[in-house]
Write a structure and sequence with these properties.
Largest sheet: 2 strands, antiparallel
Distance between the termini: 45 Å
């Protein structure tokens, strides 16, 4: 009686068994896996450091621009009150969403709109402006697209009312005179502004008086530094020649109340008739000035990085592309060496019934796991490097402006990118391993 053999398809290896086999192989080939992981981590860290640095600098620039607007509020407000403004100027402020002190009060008092309508105005006008292309230049003049809009009448009324009030105010005070008046006699300056026809918002005016007082105080000290007594006393405190004292050195000195008190003592000892400085007020004013300088440098740096910057962007993209290419080549090279080292293992697996798809999946899964771990490590390293670089060049204020949600998206994308890079680099070695004849592999030592 003859015995019949039934041939059936080989059962594929389950995903859990395949994962166990892959992790065991990675553990036994730790050195080779570490090399692959390091290649991916370095490439991803390079890319993430550039992306995170750019995102953080943009975020810091936005925060710095807002703070600069408030720190320069006195000059901006004084200029705004004493200068004519057109419909185009108002729309430009709305389009760029710049904070202009006094604009809200003008819109309500000169056009007659209420707070609810004002909020609608701030929401709708920039949107319509964007949809219609914004403010355009035509010849020597500037016109606004969509001048039939129902908001244009309100803008024109605001512009006419502001111009009339500004003209009346200029009869009494110019911008510099208004700053001095606010610093020396806030109530009198407020009365003059109201008599000209402006509506004063208490919060805005109080901030204006405070900033004006600081600017006036700094200007007075700068004037006194041109005279011999204070400059010599400052030079003695700084231990440098009077003619070598720069603006930054003076600002840093006056920003510390203890140093100002020491300067007062030296000044009064050498020149008893000199008027001493108010240490606390002087330190506050110059600290604000230093903060303004630092924030403006952040804004300028971000502007130079982004807008100067088409060449910078192209160069960065080229560098990132080269880093990713190197990562793919490195992964492919490491896995090819892994295939060569594992000829007998692959042959044994095939002799035990492993299918080509099983071998292919094993190598691709091994590459994906290594790529994921390497990319996570690279994302963390790249974020830390970007923060340290920003802290070194712009201070911890810039580094701590890190946008958490955006950085999390970048790192998540880096993890996916690392897996993709590893799998791309593993395709050829995996195909080579899967197509390897078992008997030929067994003969290779």
């Amino acid at each position: 009686m003859s015995r019949q053999l039934q041939l059936q398809n080989q059962a594929p290896l389950g995903i859990s068994r395949l994962a166990t086999l892959v992790l065991t192989g990675v553990r036994f080939r730790l050195l080779r896996s570490t090399v692959t992981l390091a290649v991916i981590a370095v490439a991803v860290a390079f890319v993430v450091s550039i992306a995170v640095g750019d995102l953080t600098l943009r975020r810091a620039s936005e925060r710095a621009a807002q703070e600069v607007a408030h720190l320069r509020m006195a000059s901006v407000y004084a200029t705004y009150l004493t200068r004519s403004t057109s419909v185009v100027d108002i729309i430009s402020h709305l389009a760029t969403r710049r904070w202009v002190p006094g604009l809200d009060a003008d819109l309500q008092s000169f056009s007659g709109i209420g707070p609810d309508t004002l909020q609608e105005f701030y929401t709708e006008v920039p949107q319509r402006l964007q949809n219609r292309g914004g403010v355009r230049d035509r010849g020597a003049g500037r016109t606004v697209e969509g001048n039939q809009d129902r908001w244009i009448a309100l803008l024109e009324a605001t512009s006419r009312g502001h111009d009339a009030a500004a003209e009346r105010l200029r009869v009494s005070l110019d911008a510099r005179g208004l700053l001095e008046a606010a610093a020396n006699n806030p109530d009198g300056a407020a009365k003059t502004v109201r008599n000209a026809g402006f509506t004063i918002e208490p919060k805005v005016w109080n901030e204006f008086v405070e900033r004006a007082h600081n600017e006036h105080l700094v200007a007075n000290i700068e004037t006194r530094l041109l005279q011999r007594p204070l400059r010599q006393a400052l030079a003695a405190q700084l231990q440098m020649a009077p003619e070598r004292i720069g603006t930054l050195e003076a600002d840093r000195f006056f920003a510390t109340a203890a140093r100002v008190r020491a300067l007062n003592a030296a000044l009064l000892q050498a020149h008893p008739g000199e008027k001493p400085l108010d240490a606390e007020q002087v330190a506050a004013a110059f600290s604000e000035r230093l903060r303004l300088r630092a924030r403006q440098e952040t804004v300028d740096r971000a502007a130079g990085t982004t807008s100067e910057g088409h060449e910078f962007s192209v160069r960065s993209w080229l560098l990132m592309g080269m880093a990713l290419l190197v990562a793919v080549v490195g992964v492919a090279n490491a896995l090819i060496m892994s295939v060569i080292e594992r000829f007998r293992e692959i042959a044994t697996l095939k002799c035990l019934g492993a299918l080509d798809g099983t071998i292919l999946g094993m190598f691709l899964l091994e590459a994906a796991v290594t790529g994921f771990v390497g990319a996570l490590a690279g994302g963390f390293i790249g974020t830390v490097v970007a923060m340290l670089k920003l802290a070194f060049t712009g201070g911890w204020w810039v580094a701590l402006s890190l946008p958490g949600a955006s950085v999390l998206m970048v790192v998540s994308g880096a993890a996916a990118m690392g897996m993709l890079l590893a799998v791309m680099g593993a395709v050829y070695p995996a195909l080579k391993a899967a197509r390897l004849p078992p008997m030929e592999a067994m003969r290779i030592e």
